[in-house]
From TrEMBL:
Species in which this protein is naturally found: Streptomyces violaceusniger (strain Tu 4113)
Name this protein carries in UniProt: PLL-like beta propeller domain-containing protein
Ranges for domain PLL-like beta propeller: 5-204, 210-332
Ranges annotated as spanning the membrane: none
Top-level taxon in the UniProt lineage: Bacteria
InterPro entries in alphabetical order: PLL-like_beta-prop (IPR058502)
Length: 343
């Protein structure tokens, strides 16, 4: 069976980027759209590799003096500089920032102490970065850039609730940030800004039950939030945002059997792609049947053997082709890349 993909492209052969990684890979795009991927290596060291213009990859770079636990959360700001947020083994929230566009990174900055799990970041409508994380009280907390210079941050503020995994935030097509979280009793809740750039948030809304993974979020071509998660029966489930960006519909099963959270991304043809680690430990993909549609193709295998970590969040490269990074199997735990290429 031919694997569904963006028209004019195919999925390529696997590329071994080596490295020995200990967490889900975390990619980000430079201002010039080159991809950089961050990983947690042995002894909690942060490492990264950067793609060159010719498609090759530069050497591994170690960030000496940093100690990272969990999955790093890189994001490119409106000013073009990448920031990497991460949790330290001592449960502090820290960030490193590019010293200039497309350059290296400065020293770490402590933003909060005593956080409960890994952070996740999203841009607000005005370009300020919002960083969300669970507190030690299991509530959802966040901080953001204090001004439009993007260099300073507010103190952390609690949004309440009770969450049990890293939150998943995203800016929807209506200009408001939506945060999807795994709640008490294997539930899916969302919380949303009341207006663009607001510090006032609506209530937590229950959107699904039988949720057994951290939710993943992406936008469809209309800017509506699509939430994917693993159901209690092991299947992939989707919850989609309404046309007015105000509510979410009922959960729908996409089938398959998975052992980790699904991840998703919008491809260049306007269709959402959903990636999973299936029970055979291979990478599989399902594709939205039509732009902004509610149905998906069946899952089809892209091969590979995924290790103990999950599938990284997909990212578009400078040619708007999807890249998917995984941790390989075995003791090597190398970083592997599967990518779309032009026919």
């Amino acid at each position: 069976m031919t694997v569904s993909t963006t028209p004019g492209t195919v999925w390529g052969t696997w590329i071994n980027l080596q490295g020995g990684i200990h967490s889900e890979p975390a990619p980000v795009a430079f201002a010039d759209d080159r991809v950089q991927v961050f990983i947690r290596g042995g002894s909690n060291v942060l490492w990264s590799r950067v793609e060159a213009r010719d498609g090759s990859w530069g050497p591994w770079q170690q960030y000496a003096g940093l100690s990272v636990d969990g999955i790093p959360a890189p994001i490119r700001g409106k000013d073009g500089k990448v920031r990497v947020f991460y949790r330290t083994p001592g449960n502090n929230l820290e960030v490193i920032t590019q010293t200039s566009i497309n350059s290296g990174y400065g020293p770490p900055q402590i933003l909060a102490t005593g956080i409960g799990d890994d952070p996740a970041a999203a841009l607000g409508a005005d370009g300020r970065i919002y960083v969300f994380f669970p507190g030690t009280d299991d509530a959802l907390w966040y901080l953001r850039n204090q001004d439009l210079q993007y260099e300073t941050y507010t103190a952390a503020t609690s949004l309440g609730g009770a969450i049990f995994a890293t939150p998943s935030p995203i800016l929807d097509g209506g200009g408001r940030i939506v945060v999807a979280v795994k709640g008490v009793g294997d539930t899916l809740y969302t919380i949303q800004q009341q207006t663009e750039n607001s510090t006032v948030w609506g209530p937590f809304t229950l959107d699904a039950s039988n949720v057994t993974s951290r939710p993943s979020v992406c936008l469809d071509a209309a800017g509506r939030v699509q939430i994917f998660y693993r159901g209690s029966d092991g299947s992939v489930r989707r919850v989609g945002q309404s046309d007015d960006y105000a509510t979410f519909g009922a959960p729908v099963s996409l089938g398959a059997q998975i052992v980790w959270r699904p991840t998703c991304a919008l491809a260049q043809d306007g269709r959402v792609n959903v990636f999973i680690k299936a029970t055979d430990n291979a990478l599989w993909v399902a594709v939205q049947t039509t732009e902004n549609g509610t149905t998906y193709s069946g899952f089809q295998s892209l091969g590979g053997v995924i290790g103990s970590a999950g599938v990284g969040v997909p990212i578009l490269n400078e040619e708007n082709l999807l890249y998917v990074f995984i941790q390989g199997s075995g003791t090597a735990r190398d970083l592997w890349l599967q990518r779309q290429t032009f026919v």
